[in-house]
Design a protein that fits this description.
The complex is a heterodimer of chains A (366) and B (659). Chain A is of the alpha/beta class. Chain A folds into 2 domains: 36-131 and 286-344, D-Maltodextrin-Binding Protein, domain 2; 133-284 and 348-362, D-Maltodextrin-Binding Protein, domain 2 (3-Layer(aba) Sandwich), CATH 3.40.190. In chain A, 47% of the residues lie in helices and 18% in strands. Chain A is built from 15 helices and 13 strands. Chain A has a 6-stranded mixed β-sheet with strand order 2-1-3-12-4-13, with helices on both faces. A 3-stranded antiparallel β-sheet of chain A has the order 8-5-9. A two-stranded parallel ribbon of chain A has the order 6-7. The longest helix of chain A has 22 residues, at 3-24. Mean pLDDT of chain A is 88; it is low at 20-27. Chain B is mostly helical. Chain B has 2 domains: 2-552, no CATH class; 577-648, no CATH class. Chain B is built from 28 helices and 2 strands. Chain B is globular, with a radius of gyration of 24 Å. The N and C termini of chain B lie far apart (54 Å). Classes of the chains: A alpha/beta (366), B mainly alpha (659). At the A-B interface, helix 2, strand 2, helix 3 and helix 8 of A face helix 3, helix 15, helix 20 and helix 23 of B.
Amino acid sequence: MSLKILIRTSIAALAGFLISTVSILPAWAVDFSGKKITMIVPFKEGGGTDGLARLFAPYLQKELPGNPEVIVLNQPGGGGVTGTNKFQRTAKKDGTVIGMGSTSTFVAYAIGGDKIKYNPMSWEPIMLMLRGAIVYVNAEKMGVKGGMSDPAGDVAKAQSKAVVIGMKTPTSAELSDYISWRIMGANVKPVFGLSTSKQRKAFFRQEIMANVDGTGPYLKKVVGKSKFKTVPMFAFGYNGPDGKRLRDPDAPDVPTMEEFYRAAFGKAPKGPAYDAYLNISGLRVMSKLVALPPGTPKEIVKTYISAMKRIAKDPKAAKAIKKTVGSLPVYYGKAAKPVMAAGFKIKPSARKWMSKELGEKFKVKM
Amino acid sequence: MLDAGIAALVAITSPVHILHLFFGVAIGLIVGILPGLGGTAGLALLLPFVFGMDPSLALAMMIGLQSVTTTSDTFPSVLMGIPGTSGSQATVLDGFPLAKKGEGARALSAAFISSMFGGVFGALVLSVAIFFAMPIILAIGFGEQMMLVVLALTMVGMLTGANAWKGLASCGLGLMLGSLGAAPFTGIERLDFGTDYLIDPLPLVVVGLAMFATPEIVDLLRRQETISEKPLMGQGWTAGLKDWLANKWLSLRCAAIGCLVGALPGLGGTVIDWIAYGHAMQTTNNKERYGTGDIRGVIAPESANNAKEGGALVPTLLFGIPGSGSMAILLGGFVLIGIEPGVEMVTDDLDLVYLIIWSVALANILGAGTCFFLAPQISKLTTIKYTLLAPIMFGLIFFAAFQATRSWGDLIALFIVSVLGIYMKRFGWPRPALLIGFVLADQVEELVYQTFTVYGLSAFERPLVLVLSALTGLSVFAVVKFKAKSGKVDKDEAHSNKNSLPQLTFLLFLFGFICLLFFDAIQYDYLTGLFPIFATSLTIAFLVPLVFQMIKADGPNSSYYDTERVATTSGGLSKSNEHYILWIAGMLLFSALVGFVIGIAGFILIFLLIKARLSLLKSTSGALLFVIFLGVLSDRLTLQYPTGFLQDSAGINLPWPLQ
């Protein structure tokens, strides 16, 4: 037996021994006594993700074993990319660092680019919250009725004029809004450089005709707030357990985009543009994620999941969560993975369609 | 309406409310004094405690904090030449020279009374405007916002210094700096030098500190003196009050500007002080005294920056749409205590609206009063030998810059732009003009594009756009008239055209930067590349006449300027700019090795030992005190300071407060 083989066998034996030892060890109780737990928010103080993290922090402190101190650390920059990169690269795997994911970091990941050095699919999800979104229009300027009143007529109106919408950039989350209008055959005219709050202001000033908002903000900040008549057109639905597209329970009267399309065109939407819509609107609805870094031990992940489930049952916390994200489903742990995978896996045909559309219309490379 | 107002006044004057209000005011004053921290950081600090509090108490606390950060930020602006928050950058221009003349007390008291007046005026306007502002806010569209920005740019045309071309080119340079990093329409990073840092544009706090703080600190160090030779005199306090009385109409106009600009979308809080300053220069006599320690240069921005809060609350309360970072957090706080901002608030929760209004007014009075009370003690800072203060101040400004994105990039960017600032000061390039260009860069880019996308040329058919265009015309007229009068050159050494090699090198460097940005820009699509191409072309257009002037000059000329010449002839300056640039670079390199906290502590220790010739014991305690200061802040604000090679690669985990 040569020395090399000897070394190899002993390493293999050692490895085997280690693996078996680890696997037969009893699942020791996770305890965070005296520790400090950091929730990394990749945005400035004051945004939606920050608000949610600050909402969870005191509850986690109460529910995690050992009652550790839980703090929120804001790492702003690059629309969330900088802080998320840092989370992926440096977060400790002992449960003392929690990451917050949100639509903007998800869309950035799905679109890709050399600045993106994270992969949400590699994280250990604790809790994934969906949030519905509604496309609404200035009924007077567009001359439409909205919802299911007269989809065919509304589509004809939308096709007859330029639909002015607001977007942050050609590859930001409002791309779903843009694509849905394109599927309707409308001539969309986006105004870039507008954040969500600037979009809403521009809509109230009648400078953009159509806009998209989360269902919660739509109900609270848009309905009945304009000097002109505002109507909802359709909602970005979500997949039910059987794969069927469902309406948002918080706005049950607003049809899904698919229902609206079927009523207007007499057939179901399909093709690369619709695939692109499914991806990007899926990422938009996939609103907030609380996750642990890749490689966090199972016991710790489990501890977090059960703590989060208890928090979600606390009446006061539940009310606050509902206020932030609405009543769409919440997924815990592994159950979140397929939902995330569906959003992130962009079909080559869909990518090609978006790349061509953005390249031709705005000379932007994807 | 009146009942609700009186009921709210009774509520707010109850001891428990006053106590909460004062607590908020105290925190607000502290974060205002600390450079780099402002209302945003302070409110983030309060937010965890607000949850579950009685709404009216929480409101008193939050509004108290929010209202006074621009009162106490005057301390560092006047006494040290470092803006305490971005709202008091313009205060530095005249406030700091006043302190250097030994009139710091006068400047401070004028500033506090202006702040108080502005704040109370803002509250008054808020109480009326909240009922009528809706249609006005709705009328300010993209076109109107664009013209507001253009108007602001022409107002600061007053800040161009002795040579108009240099001033305009500085402004162009500011536009260029503002175009680095992510393009607003596409998110593509323009000229990012391959770094992650420039995924975002350069942060304002970094550029502001680099333009005003670093060059002033280095300058004072070279003069080897205290900030003020004379100790502050007691009678300065009444002098400041008299100054304010003599300029009460200026103060009122600036407060009105502050309210208006605060409430309107498009400009943002960071330019309000500059607009007020520019307005003061445009509408008053003896303009040449501005920048050399004119009390009006303090009164104008300070009246405006506190009045802004009242104005900014109008859209926040009416729409629930925040206009700034701190308003966004305030809104977050509202939601936490169960208040839903929106038009209904005016009808349903009128008592709370009045509570807010009274809180703004009362907080401003309390804040200014506290500042008056503390000022004699704090003002003694200016009589301390500067070599003792300087290392602490370097520590403070690097800490402040680090608040921007909390990354190493902030420190490096501060260093690089500081070097630019130091040479701009030396060669007479007006730094305020650069800062204005920088602040307005993204607004110019976005609004011009958005206006023409939505309206095309028909934007100029909108009545408000026409009114604003007319005002812009008037403003340009005032600038031209003033500049025609003040075009003469002092026959002093600084403007000599001899030994111009350093100036030409600097100019060459600027051309290099322009080329770099231009050739980077032309490879992008038009949405991304158009603005940097515009900014570089504009800067070139301003530089060509300057170079022409320089070539044509056969004697001292305003196109030439070099403070070093005066310095070497009058003598008394110790060490060169480069000497201190190397000191800072050394501090950064050391930090790269051992992390920021130990790095800055080592810097303070060595600086105090060598430069201030303190004993080892005293130097060590100075460094330790700063480490504790950083430690307390990191603990309270949950900050992680930049780490060095020691922590990253050698894997050493340092205990608090050294990490």
